Amino acid sequence: MKNYDVVVIGAGISGLSLARYAREAGLEALVLERAERSGGCFHSHRFADGFWLELGAHTCYNSYGGLIRIMESLGMMGEIVGREKVSFKMLVGDQICSITSQLSFLELFTSAWRLFSLKKEGESVASYYSRIVGAKNFENVFAPAFNAVISQRANDFPADMLFNKRPRRKDVIKSYTLKDGLSSITDRIAAGLEVVTGAEITRVAKNGDGYAIELADGRGFEAKRLVLATPPPDAARLCAEVAPDAAAVLQGIKVEEIETVGVAVRKELLQVPPMAGLIAIDDSFYSAVSRDTLLDPGYRGFSFHFKSGRLGHEEKLLRIAQVLQVKRDALQQNVARDSRLPSPVVGHHQLIAKLDRALAGQNLFVTGNYFAGMAIEDCIVRSGKEFQRLSQKI
Asked: Is the separation of the CB atoms in 29 and 193 below 8 Å?
């Protein structure tokens, strides 16, 4: 078995950023990824004629300081492009409406004063925001909008994990993407690392004061330090033998299955107005995110995030055609992606504190999108904190 200073399991932005920090510190790092591609939720799918569409993460902000520093170190700042000023719409039945058309401004004005006195800590999204915007506004507009943000039912989500305030880099535009999609970031990071894709891990065992990792194809690796950058159920399975207390905590973190279908449609076939995306109300999907934020001469693209287990692939395409007001034949270019997102509830911070206590003193490190929040920057911040802990053991 080849021995590494660090083995990272999971090649999303969490795992790749931590592996990059390790490599920059002079450590020999290996990244193992079960999928056939690296990048995780950074997934810019390419259709015909070079048209790409984000199937996962789709927007970066100038408050993402950790991401910006990585991009600066990779020489990628020149690839930033601004987003077209288009807005999200709401889908009410089969009618595309403005968000404001669904609001009760009277209820909003009589409730918004609570914003200055209510605290998010210990509150769910529903308990906090319904008092600020009013119960009907929350049910009709804000709950579906928050569902769209996290691609799952948001009511029980911790209010203080939904949006995190961060310092902004005033020298960078407020919101942006990259000219070739966000996957270009993870592709560039991965290019500077040793990454093995298609790596199905069957066992993680103790090996002295380090770890032995066994793959289904018979390969094996050893590492002094092990990083888990996978969804909680996978992390729990991987560390069950070597860190049962941490595994028990990870098993308590729920995840939600999301079924995404992306479509590229010739522009001349579409009559729906330009938009950043669609927020669905009581539908088979939570939201649709549009490529209208970055114009293409020939195509428009939409990623529909469907609720798990509701529709088959062809049924999803029929629903998409109905929403976009086109014939099914217009959706010949389509792609499907299944993913899992964390689904924390109030009290999640206590779970994370318990996990950190279980990890203390070990050469095992855990990162991902289920610590302070689900945003790209939350992943990088957690990876930075875990690398600081790892650095103390060098």
From this structure: yes
